[in-house]
Amino acid sequence: MKQIETLLRKSRIGMITNQSAFGPNGEYHFQTIRKRYDLKKIFLPEHGLFAELQDQVSGSGLRYDLEGVEFVNLYGDHESSLVPDAVSLEGLDLILVDIRDTGARYYTFLTTAYYFLEEIGRWNSSGKQEISVLVIDSSNPAGRRIEGTPLQKEFESFVGVRGVLHRHGLTPGELLSYYADEFSINVKLKTIRKGWYRDENGEFAWIPPSPNIPFRSTCYVYSGQCLLEGTNLSDGRRVFYSAREKKSFP
């Protein structure tokens, strides 16, 4: 932990985060990081910082005011916005990935982080000052059970990285470590495994990472029921007490 603390204190930090990263001190993690360290940029995934946008809605119009921190939208009006450009990495030494996942391949937050790893790998290989990655890890809310088949390369997209199962059973840190190793990405990646989240076993500790994942229990059915989006059946989207957890209606 002393090495991690030293890394944080000496680094100019960019964060991939949203409201789901909430600590036992009653603060969002980005607030804590800003108070303790040199937070320069927050990179916004799909749904925005406070999960205020529905799926497939551009975040290009979002504005936040946090003194000294620049916000970079990674879910804009064009496909190119999904990948951070080299300019957005300038002036940074460390990317902090701190966001909850649902345990399903098609949930986009860790795809955003994967695209980040790739861009950092290209940056590091170009001979510029090295950027490293630190993941504040959290449990997989869907558990360790795995289901489905690995995605074939020809079907890879923003809602599915090749080789990953529908329900992968991994934590964010484990999945990103897999990406770094499997795809030989030139990045130093470390993981913090404990101490940043509340008791993760109850609904009370759950902060919705996106509008349609209101409860931890939603994650148990999301990986399967989301497949209904490819049919003419309703998957219960935009029903607050999620119909995903009950049944779907044609």
Automatic annotation (TrEMBL):
InterPro entries attached to this UniProt entry: NamZ, NamZ_N
One Pfam assignment: NamZ_N
GO molecular function: peptidoglycan beta-N-acetylmuramidase activity
Record domain Peptidoglycan beta-N-acetylmuramidase NamZ N-terminal: where: 13-214
Listed name of the protein: Peptidoglycan beta-N-acetylmuramidase NamZ N-terminal domain-containing protein
Annotated source species: Leptospira ellisii
Taxonomic path: Bacteria, Pseudomonadati, Spirochaetota, Spirochaetia, Leptospirales
